[in-house]
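Hello Y.,

Per our agreement to keep a running log of every chain we model this quarter, I'm adding this entry. I've kept the format consistent with earlier entries: sequence first, then predicted structure.
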Amino acid sequence: MKILVTGAAGFIGFNLSRRFIKEGHEVVGLDNLNDYYDVNLKKARLEILGENSLFRHVNINMHDDQPMIDLFKTEKFTHVVNLAAQAGVRYSIENPKAYIDSNIVGFLNVLEGCRHNGVEHLVYASSSSVYGMNTKMPLNPHEGVDHPMSLYAATKKSNEMMAHSYSNLYDLPTTGLRFFTVYGPWGRPDMALFLFTKGILEEKPINVFNHGKMMRDFTYIDDIVEGVVRVTKNTATPNADWDGANPDPCTSSKPYRVYNIGNNAIVELSRYIEVIEEVVGKKAIINYLPMQDGDVAATEADVSDLVRDIGFKPDTTIEVGIKNFIDCYREYYGK
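Predicted structure for the entry above:
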């Protein structure tokens, strides 16, 4: 395969690109190296990827039309994995326009590039955030997701709808992946595991929202990568049993699919912090806070479709995953 991975300098994009090039695929990694978080961390990831001749980095803003047109026309990708997005629920409240530029306009340019250049399969990152006000656990992709609680979630739901329109109009196979709280080595500095680890090591207070009662389906990065790789190779196909009188939201009579990728194991945030304390060998100084606007109290993934279609179920425990992250953190920052 010749694969475009957008957001290749990001947390998931970096780990996914490493896996693809390890398998012998040619990867073009698109990333504009924006300053949403530490650019040096992104450059360090790209430096590792650049050690392999199968990887090339291109610095392009996805919402810039002509550079995207030229990239697709020149490279002739067989597959595209779109991971580039303005991330974060909380930041979407502060800077909503960044989400429209990257997550909507940028995604449209990806769809157009795939449409006009014979891409065999587009895989793109959605998010567990699309479930919004849904509270029936585990969260099931066959149920509607019409009540987002943040603009970030709304843009991810929009991506799913945009993808379906292209699957319908142009027979472009598309698969959306709703990621559930991804964590692990090389994780983002704005994510809870990074912030908690940093705070505990430095003996500084950590902010814990919803008084530590948040419930999350924490999913280890290697499990996410395994799922994405398998899905990329399993091109979306129409559901022959799809019925417009009783429409299934995550399949279609067109080549369109949506899957959850989660650990299918719900963990309270307080337990997550306990494991960090155990690995670090220090107790956290906790500043308990109420729920933040746009956040959800609980997530848990129903992954039965993923198991049925690609034969894979994430299963890495937080005890293993957190230790691996902290080992990586200490090596990178020398702490």
